[in-house]
Design brief:
By secondary structure, the chain is mostly helical. The chain is built from three helices and no strands. The chain has helices at 2-22, 35-41, 43-86. The longest helix is centred in the middle third of the chain and has 44 residues, at 43-86. The radius of gyration is 30 Å and the shape is elongated.
């Protein structure tokens, strides 16, 4: 299931990038290149539709990301704790030399 959600997040993100590129920004976006689409539905209608698509896709990415995080929390916590316990260092037995004292002459 997490794989499906990840694929949906990637697809929604790519679509969001494309929709944002098509938007008509202050500097004039790619939306102005599609003159025939604007003439069919009207410039205001096309801009409104693109803006709705942007917010819908952004919301979709947020909801899917939260769902993915919620699903992964329960399973990964136990495995992380297990890995930490497994990686605890074991005490080393090191034979240190005794105190250095000069030899009597």
């Amino acid at each position: 299931m997490p794989t499906v959600i990840t694929i949906l997040i990637i697809a929604a993100s790519v679509l969001l990038i494309l929709v944002v590129l098509v938007q008509n920004s202050k500097g004039g976006g790619l939306d102005s290149s599609f003159g025939s689409a604007n003439q069919l539905g009207g410039a205001a209608q096309s801009t409104e539709t693109i803006e709705k698509a942007t917010w819908t896709l952004a919301g979709t990415v947020v909801v899917l990301s939260l769902a993915s995080a919620m699903m992964g929390t329960g399973a990964s916590t136990n495995s992380v704790e297990t890995n930490i316990k497994a990686q605890e260092p074991t005490p080393m037995n090191v034979n240190l030399p005794g105190p250095l004292t000069p030899k009597p002459e």
